[in-house]
């Protein structure tokens, strides 16, 4: 049963739609990410779920209740803003207690609740700190605590780690995931950082130009992207033009020009591809191998990245260099490349 | 050499600006009815005379009433305008702002005459209320300008966060918007009060029989023997105005610094 249900939700601010007939189902207790480049409509979608923007069309339902007409202050959602939006005139305790006024808790119960939340986000003893005396990471925790203390059905996070430096961001990713498991609330994360989306979420929706391209688990997004945009946005891919010749049982045969005639598992083809279709074969840099025989090429650039090396290999008859990621460096610039067929993914070619 | 010339120029410029103003306090303590050098001794009898002047107290009372009403009304209206312009996507917002500030560019004498004629056409009496209406025209632009700057200084996400945390728009205003806008609101109150308190032309045309302080002072100029007392009054107003403007700027800057941290 789906918990958050979006059906054909659209929004434009005059001109091109920012969100274009998006439908999406998120399960209860899921950690779900909306991933896409800036301007893809993901934040607008989040703001519609929170109630700050009104959809032009479609319905938004949370836990079976249609939310379209419900103002933000009556929705069972809470949001962690990208800017954190910590109230500058209140201290940490009052910021966290802000959303509890209507609950009319006795003073002791209120204190206990806020203290418990301070402990959850590891800010014990900072209750009386002023908002202007907090570091970036602490502000992020206060924003999280302020939202979680209301025990929302759905927590919305708008680029929550974007303002933090790399090390802090990585530490907070682990912590955020742990907190989500602990509280068991459905989290909906918006981010343009693919690493963040992949490492945090149970499932990810990749968005571009106001539409959802693919919804899948991080692993299958990486291993089975359904289009060129997803393959490009999640990690790096090499693309080869090809034509699907025939499908026999589990085997699909393609004419991949430069790479020759290749037989790959039919399961590697994205849905909707038919025989004689012009397709793109995608392969990850780490799946391309250096070998004794294979397609001849020349290394034009090499980058040392610690555990792995990254190479640009130029092939005869191809303008884009092939990206290869390998643990060992070949001895000279002249190399042969092997493209394991089981690692090639067939994607529709959209002209 | 060049910097020395510039320094002298600056001094001359300041003297030109503030010299005339200093005449007021100087002669207000001069022990003579005639405004002429040399000074003939120190006295505070003009100030004492002010104290005893009931017509003056009445005019002062009128000015305070008009100033307070103008300050409160123009700040309240300015707050609504500034919020609408900065927080909502409004069609024609910049045109509306242009029209709001237009009265600042219309000569006061034209404004005063047209308002007086309008009141006549509507068979409404000239009164302090009419003065307040006139002052609103020239004070609202100040209030809107000060308050828009303040609204732009704080993250609109703060108001959204409040809504998100369960507060309706009314409570959001009182728990977030108002406290964060307070320095701007105080600055606006002070500025509009000063503007109204000092204003002469509109008050002269619209006040009817109830003189405000500037109108009263103008009336006193017919009596040469009362001139030193007017100077004493002017000196007091000058001191109060300077104090209020400094206070307004201080409060405004205080707020700006705080909101920068919060944003």
Protein described:
Chain A has a 6-stranded mixed β-sheet, with helices on both faces. Chain A has 351 residues and is α+β, with helices and mostly antiparallel strands. Chain A folds into 2 domains: 2-229, Rossmann fold; 236-348, OB fold (Dihydrolipoamide Acetyltransferase, E2P), CATH 2.40.50. Chain A contains 8 helices and 20 strands. Chain A has helices at residues 42-50, 92-97, 107-120, 136-148, 166-183, 194-200, 218-223, 228-233, and strands at 2-12, 17-27, 31-35, 57-62, 65-66, 77-80, 154-158, 186-191, 203-208, 211-216, 238-248, 251-255, 261-265, 278-283, 289-291, 295-304, 309-315, 322-326, 334-338, 345-348. Chain B has 263 residues and is mainly α. Chain B has a single domain, classed as MetI-like fold, CATH 1.10.3720. Helix content of chain B is 78%, strand content 0%. In chain B, helix 2 (45-52) packs across helix 11 (227-262) and helix 3 runs antiparallel to helix 10 (213-220). The longest helix of chain B has 36 residues, at 227-262. The radius of gyration of chain B is 22 Å and the shape is globular. The termini of chain B are far apart. Mean pLDDT of chain B is 85; it is low at 258-263.
Provide a concise account of the structure shown.
The complex is a heterodimer of chains A (351) and B (263). Chain A has eight helices and 20 strands.
What would CATH call the class of the largest domain in chain A?
A: Alpha Beta
How is the biggest beta sheet of chain A arranged?
Answer: 6 strands, mixed
- Give, in order, the helices and strands of chain B: HHHHHHHHHHH
CATH architecture term of the largest domain in chain A: 3-Layer(aba) Sandwich
Q: How many domains is the backbone of chain B divided into?
A: 1
Query: Could you name the CATH class of chain B?
Result: Mainly Alpha
Class computed from helices, strands and strand pairing of chain B: mainly alpha
Low-confidence stretches of chain A: none
The overall pLDDT average of chain B reads 85
Could you please say which CATH topology of the largest domain in chain A applies here? Rossmann fold
Helices and strands of chain A, in order, run as EEEHEEEHHHEHEHEEHHEEEEEEEEEE
What is the total tally of β strands of chain B?
0
* Overall pLDDT score of chain A: 90
Low-confidence stretches of chain B: 258-263
Q: Quaternary status of these chains?
A: heterodimer
3D shape of chain B: globular
Query: Helical residue percent of chain B?
Result: over 70%
Number of self-contained structural domains of chain A: 2
**How much of the residues of chain B is beta strand, in percent?**
under 5%
Shape of chain A: elongated
Physical arrangement of strands within the biggest beta sheet of chain A: 6-7-8-3-9-10
């Amino acid at each position: 049963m789906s918990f958050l249900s979006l059906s054909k939700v659209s929004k434009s601010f005059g001109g091109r739609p920012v969100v274009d007939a998006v439908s999406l189902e998120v399960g209860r207790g899921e950690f779900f990410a909306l991933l896409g480049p800036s301007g893809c409509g993901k934040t607008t979608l989040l703001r519609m779920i929170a109630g700050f923007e009104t959809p032009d069309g479609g319905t938004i339902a949370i836990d079976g209740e249609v939310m379209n007409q419900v103002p933000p202050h009556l929705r069972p959602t809470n949001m962690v803003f990208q800017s954190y939006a910590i109230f500058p005139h209140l201290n940490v305790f009052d910021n966290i207690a802000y959303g509890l006024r209507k609950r009319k808790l006795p003073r002791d119960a209120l204190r206990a609740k806020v203290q418990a939340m301070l402990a959850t986000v590891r800010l014990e003893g900072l209750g009386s700190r002023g908002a202007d005396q907090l570091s970036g990471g602490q502000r992020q925790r206060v924003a999280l605590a302020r939202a979680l203390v209301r025990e929302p059905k759905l927590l919305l996070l708008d680029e929550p780690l974007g303002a933090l430096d790399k090390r802090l961001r990585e530490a907070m990713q682990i912590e955020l995931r742990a907190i989500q498991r602990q509280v068991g609330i459905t989290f909906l994360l918006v981010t343009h950082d693919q690493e963040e989306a992949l490492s945090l979420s149970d499932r990810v929706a990749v968005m571009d130009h106001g539409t959802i391209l693919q919804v899948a688990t991080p692993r299958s997004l990486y291993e089975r992207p359904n289009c060129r945009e997803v393959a490009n946005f999640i990690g790096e891919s090499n693309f080869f033009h090809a034509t699907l010749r025939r499908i026999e049982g589990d085997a699909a045969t393609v004419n991949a020009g430069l790479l020759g005639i290749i037989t790959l598992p039919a399961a590697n083809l994205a849905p909707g591809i038919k025989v004689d279709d012009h397709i793109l074969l995608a392969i990850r840099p780490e799946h391309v191998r250096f070998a004794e025989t294979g397609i001849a090429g020349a290394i034009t650039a090499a980058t040392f990245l610690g555990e792995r090396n990254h190479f640009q290999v130029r092939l005869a008859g191809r303008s884009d260099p092939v990206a290869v990621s390998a643990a060992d460096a070949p001895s000279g610039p002249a190399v042969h490349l092997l493209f394991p067929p089981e690692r090639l993914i067939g994607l529709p070619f959209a002209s | 050499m060049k910097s020395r010339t510039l320094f002298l120029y600056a001094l001359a410029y300041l003297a030109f600006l503030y010299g005339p103003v200093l005449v007021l306090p100087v002669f207000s303590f001069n022990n003579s009815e005639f405004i002429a050098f040399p000074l003939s001794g120190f006295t505070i009898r003009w100030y004492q005379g002010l104290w005893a002047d009931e017509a003056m107290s009445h005019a002062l009372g009128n000015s305070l009433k008009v100033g307070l009403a103008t300050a409160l009304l123009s700040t309240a209206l300015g707050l609504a305008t500034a919020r609408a312009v900065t927080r909502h996507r409004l069609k024609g917002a910049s045109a509306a702002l242009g029209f709001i500030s237009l009265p600042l560019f219309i000569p006061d004498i034209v404004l005063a005459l047209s308002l007086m004629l309008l009141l006549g056409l509507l068979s409404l009496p000239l009164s302090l209320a009419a003065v307040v209406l006139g002052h609103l025209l020239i004070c609202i632009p100040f209030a809107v300008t000060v308050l828009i700057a303040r609204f732009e200084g704080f993250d609109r996400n703060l108001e959204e966060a409040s809504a998100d945390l369960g507060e309706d728009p009314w409570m959001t205003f009182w728990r977030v918007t108002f406290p964060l806008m307070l320095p701007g609101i105080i600055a606006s109150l002070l500025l509009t009060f000063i503007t109204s308190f000092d204003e002469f032309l509109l008050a002269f045309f619209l006040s009817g029989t109830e003189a405000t302080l500037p109108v009263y002072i103008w009336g006193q100029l017919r009596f040469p023997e009362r001139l030193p007392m007017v100077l004493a009054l002017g000196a007091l107003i000058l001191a109060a105005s300077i104090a209020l403007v400094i206070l307004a700027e201080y409060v405004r800057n205080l707020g700006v610094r705080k909101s920068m941290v919060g944003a």
